[in-house]
């Protein structure tokens, strides 16, 4: 038996091709705008100010804290109290915003002193 070697090609209207190209351009444009806008929010979340006060609030008795991180790992540590920094962050309008930053590590608390510059942004931006 002999095979038919003819190829049947259906014509695609120009209107369908133009519509597909316009949809593709719109989707790519939307993705570009979304990525661009997400970068501005991270830049606005970066708030650097001056530490005006350090405070340690001891607990009545030390407690064990169990932490579950983003990857699912569990860790436990003994906590003696709360480590709090008061930071004055300049705003775009010239005023200063006072932020209280709770630290979960005594080493971080001991590493800074009143008058140092401190970046509060990582507390508001999820880490990778």
Brief rundown of the structure:
This protein has 128 residues and is an alpha+beta fold.
Would you list the SSEs in sequence order as H and E?
HEEEHE
- Which percent bin holds the helix content? 25-40%
The geometry reads as elongated
Main sheet: which strands, in order across? 3-2-1-4
Query: Number of DSSP helices?
Result: 2
- C-alpha end-to-end distance: 64 Å
Number of beta strands? 4
Largest sheet: 4 strands, antiparallel
Radius of gyration: 28 Å
Quickly give the structural class: alpha+beta
Percent in strands: 35-45%
- In terms of per-residue confidence, which ranges show pLDDT below 50 for 5 or more consecutive residues? 124-128
Could you tell me the mean pLDDT?
A: 84
Give me some keywords for this one.
38% strand; disordered C terminus; alpha+beta; 2 helices; four-stranded antiparallel sheet
Map the helices and strands:
Blueprint: H1 14-45, E1 48-68, E2 74-90, E3 96-103, H2 106-111, E4 117-119
Antiparallel strand pairs: 1-2, 1-4, 2-3
Task: Describe the model.
The protein has 128 residues and is an alpha+beta fold. The protein has a domain at 47-123. 30% of the residues lie in helices and 38% in strands. It contains 2 helices and 4 strands. The protein has helices at 14-45, 106-111, and strands spanning 48-68, 74-90, 96-103, 117-119. It has a 4-stranded antiparallel β-sheet. The longest helix is centred in the first third of the chain and has 32 residues, at 14-45. The protein is elongated, with a radius of gyration of 28 Å. The termini are far apart. Mean pLDDT is 84; it is low at 124-128.
């Amino acid at each position: 038996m002999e095979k038919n070697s003819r190829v049947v090609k259906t014509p695609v209207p120009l209107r369908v091709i133009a519509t597909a190209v316009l949809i593709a351009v719109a989707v790519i444009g939307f993705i570009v705008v979304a990525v661009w806008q997400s970068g501005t929010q991270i830049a606005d979340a970066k708030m650097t100010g001056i530490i005006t006060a350090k405070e340690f609030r001891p607990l009545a008795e030390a407690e064990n804290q169990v932490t579950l991180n983003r990857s699912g790992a569990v860790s436990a540590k003994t906590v003696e109290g709360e480590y709090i920094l008061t930071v004055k962050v300049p705003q775009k309008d010239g005023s200063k915003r006072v932020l209280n930053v709770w630290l979960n590590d005594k080493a971080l608390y001991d590493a800074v002193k009143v008058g140092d510059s401190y970046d509060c942004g990582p507390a508001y931006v999820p880490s990778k």
